[in-house]
Design brief:
Blueprint: H1 2-22, E1 37-39, E2 46-47, E3 53-57, E4 67-73, E5 79-86, E6 97-101, H2 108-111, E7 116-117, E8 130-133, E9 137-141, E10 145-150, E11 153-158, E12 165-173, E13 178-181, E14 184-189, E15 192-198, E16 200-207, E17 214-220, E18 225-231, E19 247-251, E20 261-263, E21 266-268, E22 272-276, E23 278-284, E24 293-299, E25 304-306, E26 315-323, E27 328-331, E28 336-338, E29 341-346, E30 348-355, E31 362-368, E32 373-379, H3 393-396, H4 413-430, E33 434-447, H5 450-456, E34 471-475, E35 478-483, E36 486-492, E37 499-500, E38 507-511, E39 514-518, E40 529-531, E41 534-545, E42 548-568, E43 573-580, E44 583-593, E45 600-612, E46 620-631, E47 646-651
């Protein structure tokens, strides 16, 4: 009996010693799993197909390209795993996000159990609480250098501020084959290069009409290039199975979703099936995202058959209405635009960013259901700290009561400059395309050369209106384009109308080339006139203060002074003289807008030109006032006030 007790004690001691030797305090033994969900309202790194939450998982085998697994440490020292996809824009935000390579002799399923530290620690519980993993990399915020204890030794890893990518180079014989990656069409054709590919395992298939599809499976590692060459078989080519076989082979393409193929009544996830000679009904259920397939195939014994069907994505209508209506709406990789958007999109989840100067930016995960009109209304909330002093306006009563920075907590100079810079950046970002034209106005130009001014004063009569750039009424003679804070304008000169001489007196002119007389004689058809044909271009910038638009530009005016029908007393003929008179000018342009419509906005304008630099004959001081119309192709951004942020959706 004593011998048995001693033997049992020895065995217990041996087990305890072995377990102590095997146990590694720097390795996580198990992950807590209780099917919880992770809200994503405060996380801008991981995204989820489910929308606003991520689902918990209990283990990791492989991680699909573009996906990540978040390891989160919770109270009590337990760890949980959540699966989703990575938002690569997180690398552009603060605090900084760093990417690290998983050591070459480790895979993601094993390395995800290693604790990661910001410094060498003897206390194993002081590890980083949130770490993100994909097949070849892991990601950590704040820390550009991390430490991992592997086999009782510390390893130092350096991170990068950029997301690691790979690339494909694909060629085929023949060309123009459509490329499908992991069951999803890329809308690209061979030969081509596909850049910025997330690392991981890919199934690449090529489809070409009248040819069998071809498939290849590859791993893409960070900063690597994978070169693939495909040879596509024609539908007229027959591939035989070696030997005398009573069955044929049927190859399926990789489906974009994990739904089995149904051969008659047999469900299979295998992409290769051995079938006896005969006809079979092939079905595939695409669910809510893809069109389902139901067809008949004939299998011949001893031959290879391909299921050359492509998976077609279902589509739906997405309609987004924003309040205020002029907010900028950005939908994933579809670009940005201002105001309401209505698009036909493939079904699925989309990340939508809505921004407006003076309002809190909002990010939403929106689901587009197939064959449905999906209506969403996004009501932005006003910025609660317009004076940006760090205190809510409802508390310090700024700027509504005391006025901006008047009796309110003062900003530091650096903070004030940063706020103003951010305000200008937001204004430039939100400044839409505007096209304008003058309707009717009044112009007055005064020459700086006194002798020419005295000579010009004798030419006072002429037609009113039209493309007039001297004095009197003008109509449709100036045009402009404004976009992203930039202003470009053009002014047309007086081409058809002239400044007529109708004085009853005779004007005598003397020059080195002879004596000239200016006189008016309607019977003989002598009607002296001065023409000022010109065209000016100006380029500058503009800024809106509420309904006042202030513009500064620098311009150049191409101008001629043409004196017509001057009588030469020496030769007895009528002559015409043309003088070049180009000049530079500064231009100040003010506009007061009347926002009665979203697309057509009338305004009153006041324009001044200040000449500078060298000139040929004379420079001009110009003042121009009048009425113009501006066209906003995408709708004018009229300020509105909204205090609640909410999203209302309605699928019809």
């Amino acid at each position: 009996m004593k011998l048995r007790l001693l033997t049992l004690l020895h065995l217990l001691l041996l087990v305890s010693l072995v377990s102590a030797a095997v146990s590694d305090p720097f390795t996580i033994n198990r992950f807590k799993s209780s099917n919880r969900i992770l809200p994503l309202s405060s996380n801008d790194i991981i995204k989820s197909e489910a929308g606003r939450t991520c689902t918990e998982i209990d283990s990791v085998i492989t991680i699909a390209p573009g996906n990540i697994v978040m390891r989160k440490k919770i109270d009590g020292g337990e760890y949980r795993l959540y699966e989703g996809s990575i938002d690569t824009n997180a690398f552009k935000r603060e605090p900084p996000l760093y990417a690290f390579r998983i050591p070459a002799n480790r895979d993601a399923s094993g390395f995800i159990r290693k604790r990661i530290y910001s410094s060498i620690e003897q206390n194993h519980s002081n590890d980083i609480e949130e770490v993100y993993f994909d097949e070849f990399n892991f990601y950590v915020r704040h820390h550009g250098t991390v430490f991992v204890n592997i086999d009782r030794s510390w390893i130092t890893l350096q991170g990068s501020r950029s997301y690691p990518h790979g690339r494909f180079e694909l060629v085929s014989e023949p060309d123009d084959a459509q490329i499908v990656i992991n069951g999803i069409s890329t809308l690209r054709k061979t030969p081509c290069s596909i850049e910025r590919v997330a690392s991981g395992k890919y199934t690449i298939e090529l489809f070409l009409p009248n040819h069998h599809f071809s498939r290849n499976e590859v791993y893409v590692r960070p900063d690597s290039t994978v070169k693939l060459s495909f040879e596509l078989l024609s539908d007229f080519d027959t591939v035989y199975i070696s030997g005398d076989n009573p069955y044929g082979l049927l190859y399926f393409p990789s489906p974009p979703v994990d739904t089995p193929f149904v051969i008659d009544t047999l469900r299979t996830h295998n992409l290769k099936a051995e079938l006896l000679d005969g006809s079979y009904r092939i079905q595939w259920n695409g669910g809510n995202r893809y069109e389902s397939i139901d067809t008949i195939l004939t299998i011949t014994a001893g031959k290879v058959c391909w299921f050359d069907k492509q998976f077609v994505r279902k589509k739906g209508i997405l309609s987004i209405r924003t309040l205020p209506f002029d907010a900028e709406v950005c939908i994933d990789t579809l670009g940005c635009s201002f105001g309401d958007r209505t698009l036909e999109l493939q079904s699925g989840n989309y990340t939508v960013d809505i921004s407006r100067h003076g309002f809190v930016n909002t990010r939403k995960i929106i689901t587009v259901l197939p064959d449905t009109i999906n209506n969403y209304v996004v009501d932005l909330r006003m910025n609660a700290d317009l004076d940006a002093d760090g205190y809510l306006d409802s508390i310090d009563r700024c700027p509504d009561i005391y006025g901006l920075y008047d009796g309110c907590p003062k900003q530091s100079m650096g903070r004030a400059v940063a706020v103003k810079k951010n305000e200008i950046v937001n204004y430039i970002k939100n400044d839409q395309l505007t096209i304008g034209s003058s309707l009717i106005g009044f112009i007055a130009r005064i020459p700086s050369n006194r002798k020419f001014s005295s000579f010009l004063s004798t030419f006072s009569s002429g037609r009113i209106g039209g493309v007039n750039n001297y004095r009197g009424l003008t109509m449709f003679n100036t045009y402009h384009v404004m976009y992203r804070g930039i202003y470009g304008g053009v002014e047309l000169g007086q081409w058809s109308s002239g400044i007529r001489y109708k004085d009853s007196d005779t004007l005598h002119l003397k020059s080195d080339s002879g004596n000239y007389v200016v006189f008016y004689d309607s019977l003989r058809g002598i009607k002296p006139a001065i023409y000022l044909p010109s065209t000016s271009l100006s380029l500058g910038f503009h800024y809106n203060f509420s309904w006042i638009n202030v513009i500064y530009s620098l311009g150049y005016q191409w101008e001629d002074i043409v004196i017509d029908q001057i009588y030469n007393r020496n030769s007895g003929t009528l002559e015409q003289f043309t003088y070049n008179n180009d000049w530079w000018f500064h231009q100040i342009h003010l506009e007061a807008d009347f926002h009665a419509d979203r697309h057509f906005v009338p305004s009153v304008y006041f324009n001044m030109k200040f000449p500078f630099g060298n000139y040929h004959r004379t420079r001009w001081h110009s003042i121009n006032v009048g009425l113009k119309v501006k066209i906003y192709p995408f709708g004018y951004r009229k300020p509105q006030q909204h205090f609640d942020t909410k999203v209302e959706s309605d699928s019809q």
